[in-house]
Design a protein that fits this description.
Length: 380
């Protein structure tokens, strides 16, 4: 059963959504099979489950949208899609945008809401049907065509958007050379006015000259990198943007390194991925703890959206016996462990330290030069 079959039988989907509860999928299927075709019920309950999961990405819109499992996994969450669409609309208001490999249409939705004229191209007919249904369900203009992104006619469009597939055999692909469409096709798109969504692990040297790479995080979690070219290129090579607040940074001033101060700053992941850690040092009048490690330290607490701040309580010996004694002495029961530049699994170390007390603490383990160091901290 397909998305199209659910569109033709809305009462079954409505019933599945009304009855759906996490962990009770089989009971819901059994109940609805007394009234409806079994295959249709299975498809409807699967759709209800996808809608439930999609609330984290799409908010209230998820209750009206249609998904495929793969389409959901690769779809862009609304806050990120809205940011990208707003940037396109600011540079080229009302422009015609073609989305190559549009999936279930998450980016089409954001672009249409920004006043852009949208066309999606999707190879898989069922996924294309979901994208088409999503525009209709949200009362948004646009069209979705079934076709191959690599042979689409781009001449009528002002902007090309592409979100190359980063999954193969159900597994996530991290190497940009394994994307589909291939990287050579993507770099060809970037010779015109385009925006391409890529994984945040994209190597800096893979980004073509004259293209901006923007690393985007949402609520502290790095979500993607967006590559901007042509009329959408800002003139900067690298940018970090932190959502939902929208803080952005493009410059990395030179910064010294030195001994730990009263506070430790952990830069947002997008700032780290963009190679702009020294922007945090400039923002808090601080310095790097080590020139190769993405921690900043300073003597004063200066709030910044670019980083989380921790007050240094004490430096501890990086020895399991000493750390276990510290956990007992401080009556620690909730232990957050952060690490950079050292080879350890925080979950394994936490189990060895066996926190069973009533207080909470943060343990930061990092490297300065050749030596591993540990700091007892509290969130500032």
């Amino acid at each position: 059963m397909t998305v199209t079959s659910l569109l033709d039988n809305p009462e079954v989907l409505a019933a599945a959504c009304a009855e759906y509860e996490v962990g009770r999928e089989l009971q819901v299927v059994e109940k609805l099979r007394r009234r409806y075709d079994g295959a249709l019920v299975s498809a409807a309950v699967t759709q209800a489950a996808l809608r439930y999961r999609a609330v984290a990405k799409f908010g209230a819109d998820a209750a009206r949208m249609y998904f495929t499992p793969d389409g959901y996994e690769q779809s862009t969450r609304t806050v990120v899609g809205t940011h990208r669409a707003a940037r396109i609309a600011a540079a080229l208001p009302g422009s015609r945008v073609i989305d190559l490999g549009c999936g279930i249409g998450g980016d089409l939705i954001s672009a249409a809401r920004a006043g852009l004229r949208v066309t999606g191209v999707e190879r898989d007919p069922e996924t294309a049907a979901a994208a088409r249904a999503n525009l209709a369900a949200l009362d948004l203009p646009g069209e979705v065509l079934v076709g191959d992104a690599e042979i689409a006619d781009l001449t009528p469009y002002d902007v090309v958007f592409a979100d190359p597939a980063r999954r193969a055999d159900g597994r996530r692909v991290f190497d940009h050379n394994a994307y589909s469409p291939p990287w050579t096709f993507i770099t060809g798109l970037l010779e015109r006015t385009a925006c391409v969504k890529v994984a945040p692990g994209i190597p800096h040297d893979a980004v073509p000259d004259g293209v901006e790479a923007e690393w985007i995080s949402d609520a502290g979690e790095v979500k993607e990198a967006a590559l901007w070219s042509g009329a959408l290129y800002s003139g900067t090579a690298r940018r970090a943007t932190l959502l939902p607040g929208g803080a952005t940074v493009t410059e990395a001033p030179e910064t010294e390194s030195g001994p730990v101060g009263n506070y430790l700053y952990e830069p947002d992941g997008a700032v780290v991925r963009a190679g702009l850690v020294t922007a945090v040092a400039a923002a808090v009048d601080g310095w790097l703890l080590d020139p190769r490690i993405a921690y900043v330290t300073a003597d004063k607490l200066v709030p910044t959206p670019l980083a989380s701040a921790y007050e240094i309580v004490e430096q501890l010996p990086y020895k399991e016996k000493a750390l276990r004694a510290w956990v007992r002495a401080q009556d620690i029961g909730t232990l957050e462990i952060k690490k950079r530049g050292v080879d350890l699994d925080p979950a394994v170390l936490r189990k060895k330290l066996a926190p069973k007390g009533t207080t909470a603490a943060t343990l930061v383990i990092t490297r300065i030069g050749r030596d591993a160091v540990a700091y007892s901290c509290r969130r500032a």
